[in-house]
Structure formats: C-alpha cells, structure tokens
Please model this.
Amino acid sequence: MDDDRPPPAPRIHGTIARKLGIEIVGGIRRPGDILDGEIEASEELGISRTAYREAIRILAAKGLVESRPKAGTRITSRNRWNLLDPDILAWTFEGEPDPQFIVDLFELREVIEPAAAAFAAQRRSDQDLAEMTDALKGMEAFGLADERGRAADQRFHRAILAAAGNEPLTALASTVGAAVSWTTKFKQRRRNLPRDPLPDHRRVHEAIAAKDADGARRTMTDLLRLALTDMELPERE
Amino acid sequence: MDDDRPPPAPRIHGTIARKLGIEIVGGIRRPGDILDGEIEASEELGISRTAYREAIRILAAKGLVESRPKAGTRITSRNRWNLLDPDILAWTFEGEPDPQFIVDLFELREVIEPAAAAFAAQRRSDQDLAEMTDALKGMEAFGLADERGRAADQRFHRAILAAAGNEPLTALASTVGAAVSWTTKFKQRRRNLPRDPLPDHRRVHEAIAAKDADGARRTMTDLLRLALTDMELPERE
DNA sequence: TGTCTCCAATAACTCAGACATAATTAGCCT
DNA sequence: AGGCTAATTATGTCTGAGTTATTGGAGACA
Model:
C-alpha cells in the first residue's frame, strides 16, 4: 500500500522548479513580477528551453505562476498559491519563513489535530494504537534532540491522523506534519529543549487508548499550545 | 491584490493533464499502474511528446504520478496525492465521487469552518463584515437554486475564512469552498431545496457582527451539520 | 543453489531548431 | 475619442536526435 522506493534522482526540471519556487515563496521574486522570456532565462541558467518550460509547468501546477502567450509568465498573487502543497511548504522553510506564518501554521494545527485526535479515539483500530505506541517508544528512546526522535514524533502525529479515518484530513498530515518537523528544528536552533514534551504525548496516547474522545481533544490542544509557547514567537495582538 | 484576469486559453498540456488526472482520481487507472511510454502515449493521443511530457510534469507536481528512466511513469499510492489541490478536487467531482469522500469533506469543513468563524468574530474588520453582508444579500436575492446565489454562498464562506486572518487556513477555502459548490450542485440534482439554509447563514452573520466568537462557532457548526443531513448521505457507522 | 558484479536494454531526460498560436500593442479608420 | 485591424512577440507545439538513469538478466564466484 505504501510505495517506499528510493526517490528518483534529481532532474534538471525539478531542480530549476525548486530554485525558482524558493525564490518566489521567499519573496526574492514578488507577485506581479514577470519572469524573463524562455529563451533568455534558459540561456541564463545554461539549460535547454524544454527543461526550463517543464520547470515552469511544475510551478504553474502549484499555482505560483501563470503564463500566457505574448504576455509572458507572471507570478500570481499569494492567495492563488497552494500553501498546503508539500513542496511549497518545504520551499518556504528553505529560507527564513515569516514568524507570523509559523504562528498561523500552529493555529491551523490547533484546529485540525485536536479534532483528529477525537476522531481517532472513536475510530482507532488496535493496529492504529500499536503504531502510536511504537512511535511513542521511539520518542522516549531518542528524545527530540535526535533526528530519529523527531522522526518518531512525526510518526506519532501521522498515526493519529491516519486513525481518524478521514482521507482529506490525512492529506493535511503530510504538509502540516512536515511543518512540525521544520519548526522543531527551528526551535532547537535557538534553545536547547525548553521543556520535555513527552508527558503531553503520553496523555494524548492514553486518552486515545481509552477511546476518550473529549480527553483526546483536550490533551492534544494542551500539547500544541505548550509547544507553541515554547517557540517564543510573537503573539497575535 | 486580486488578479482577476480572464483565465488563459486552454492549452494541450493542460487538457491532457486534466484528462489523465480525471482518469486517475476516478479510478479508471489505479495506483501502481504504469502508463504507456511517451512515444506510444503521445501518438495515441495525437499530440507531440513535448506536450505529453508537460502534462505528466503537471500530474507529478500534484503527486499523482512518479516517473523514472527505464522504469516508466507509474501512478503513486493514494496517500501521496495532494487531495486538497484545487485541480485534483475539481477532477474528483468530474466523475461520480465516492460518497464517503464527500462525507469526509464535510467532516473537514465541520472542523475548519467553525474555528474560522470564531477567529473571524474576534479579528474581523468592518470591511470584512461588509463583504459578508453583501454576500448574504446576494443569497437572499437569488436563492441557492440560481447559479448567482450559489456564487454568493461561496463568497460568504470565503469572506469568513479571509476575516479569520490566517493564510494557510484561507488556502483551504479555495479547495473546500469549491467543494461546497460542487456538493451543492450535487444536492440540487436529487431533490429541490430540502430546507431553507438562509436563517442559518443569518445567525452566523449576526454572531460575527457582534464579535461573539463562541456564538459564531456554534452557529456555523449548526449550519454545516444541517447541510450535511440534507445531503442524505450514508452515515458513518 | 544462492549471491554478487557487471553489462546491455530501455524509457525517461535533455537538447536544438523550426513553426504555430494567442495576447498585446500600435496604428488606422471612422 | 472610440473601435476595429494588423503587426509584434512570447509562449505553445512539433520533430528528431542524442544522453542518462534504472532495471533485469548474464555470468562469475562462493
């Protein structure tokens, strides 16, 4: 069910799409800007027009640009961007993301994950629970300072989303869940483990194990709120 | 701030991407399937390899396929698809979408929109409120049987999301909001206006106008729950 | 018999150059 | 001044050749 083959080797079109994508979400290139013509741009980059065009198609598919004959390829306004697209999210965190954006992302998590935890408490299978238990063990074994520990953290949250039994909701997991990982790395950068998040995770786990929907919602809300305050980001006025 | 230029004329690569995308999300082609080679496929479709390849790049950007030299282009497993991508959502509703999927979508709305309504009640500007008022008037004027009325309905929900002041949350609006429109059309198909949804909308509007966050959350929840029961879709067991 | 290394086949990838098409712009006419 | 028309131009499409990354199997070896 899960195709876990090694990712394809990086190709030119993907590389260029990534490069341009980072420049766009990073604000180097701004909405309304018109990119250089295909011939000029491809020569500038030392690649063929074909490869450059395919890169543009990728960006257009994600809503970052729109191109039309004669007018050229222009960067669309931000509200047209698919901010939840995994690639776009990853590109956003390649640069220095706007602190407000991170706050917004956490706010989104505070909306989604408690609800997902409640659903998970109601619908989880024993296998789902076993996956959560295993992930929790991984977090305990390595801690969040370790890369493997962070991976286990992500697995824990993904397992909850999966147990919620709602496909579109789970699709958010790959994006928001990825953001979790980036923000955690972000956090480590400025301070060493401000507080032990493991007890919070255990409480969520217990509630889901007991099929206590309200408890799961509440404990998950607590977990996220504390995680956010630990980030020491600007509060919303 | 909003680039509302006429959409570019349909091009071959977009058309083919759409066609293949519909076949994939519609289940005609299944995960794990390998598409025909570029030469064969492009000849079959009567187009050039270039156009076909660009179509594949679009699908790959949305996570539907993955291609590698020698191995070919294969359809990825569903959990890799960006189900929230506006195009994918639209393609899904081109065919007969799985009823369970629609239920999941409504469930997602019931998670997101009440929270958004609560934020909107706290953060709305007078201009935001004016937009909602205007949209509500549009709904009253035309009713949901009319295309313009449905457009006003969408505007109402979008205005709330926008007033919530959370960009990623708003990004969901273009997808979930679009789904609203499709499901409404879906509903009209089987029965003529089961119940007047306007009073529900007015109550949400009043709560947001009064900056009553809890009230906004509650009334929005009611609105969505009733809208779902009106769909007469299979309940989750 | 099973495992490993190497090699050849293959399909996607990249390139180059030409022609077609659709927006835009300027210019013309009314 | 306004609206139609045609030239301009950047993207779109096509063809055909050459390159590169996987793969699957042949052959060597334990």
In short: The beta strands of chain A are 65-68, 72-75. The longest helix of chain A spans residues 99-123.
